[in-house]
Design goal:
With 196 residues, the chain is an all-alpha fold. It folds into 2 domains: 77 residues, Rna Polymerase Sigma Factor, Chain: A, CATH 1.10.1740; 87 residues, Orthogonal Bundle (Arc Repressor Mutant, subunit A). Helices cover 72% and strands 2% of the residues. It has 9 helices and 2 strands. Strands 1-2 form a two-stranded antiparallel ribbon. Helix 2 packs across helix 3, helix 3 packs across helix 4 and helix 5 crosses helix 8. The radius of gyration is 37 Å and the shape is rod-shaped.
Length: 196
């Protein structure tokens, strides 16, 4: 009896293999999915208890394959929406800024780097050593061979030029400038006029 079933399967079902593959390509995207669907279809057809009573084996084969493809698509769609819904219920938070803020921060950083690149060479070196590498005035003086008072002037000049560059591009608001002024402390007055 097993030989009879096997013979029926080869002659009535398996011979439509190429047509079944072509048919399933219209329902699925990947070769792996098609292979899985064909295999599952064959298993279901082979397991039919009354296979001899089937009037049109080819029609049955394609109907089972179609139903399996639709069932699989629904399952994948359901899993995709379930996983999105599950994320909301997990109350997962990220320490990272939202993507739009990350993009804005990256744009501001690149603009700041461009403003530093536009500084005169000595001013740029002093500014980077002080503000990026956090070297002291004495260390910068030793590395570059300039007086500490010159270092202070170059740092102030670099800050003002970078501020102006960022303002021109609309990346620095007036509130940002007030914060920077508070961080630097009060301005000094020399000889009755304003100083650096």
């Amino acid at each position: 009896m097993a030989d009879e079933r096997h013979e029926w399967f080869l002659n009535q079902i398996f011979r439509h293999r190429a047509a079944l593959y072509r048919y399933l390509r219209s329902f699925t995207s990947g070769t792996q999915d098609i292979d899985d669907l064909v295999q599952e279809t064959y298993i279901r057809v082979y397991a039919l208890p009354d296979y001899q009573a089937v009037d049109s084996p080819k029609a049955l084969l394609f109907r089972i394959a179609h139903n399996l493809a639709v069932e699989r698509a629904r399952r994948y769609q359901s899993q995709a929406t379930d996983s999105v819904g599950d994320l909301d219920s997990l109350s997962v938070s990220s320490r990272e800024a939202p993507p739009d803020e990350q993009i804005d921060a990256r744009r501001r950083f690149e603009s700041f780097c461009a403003s530093v690149d536009r500084l005169p060479p000595l001013c740029r070196r002093v500014f980077v050593l002080r503000k990026v590498y956090r070297l002291s005035h004495a260390e910068i003086s030793e590395v570059l061979g300039v007086a500490p008072s010159t270092i202070e002037k170059h740092v102030a000049k670099g800050l003002m030029r970078c501020r102006d560059y960022l303002k021109e591009r609309g990346l620095l608001e007036s509130g940002d400038e007030d914060v920077n002024r508070r961080e630097r402390g009060p301005r000094r007055v020399q000889d009755g006029g304003e100083g650096a």
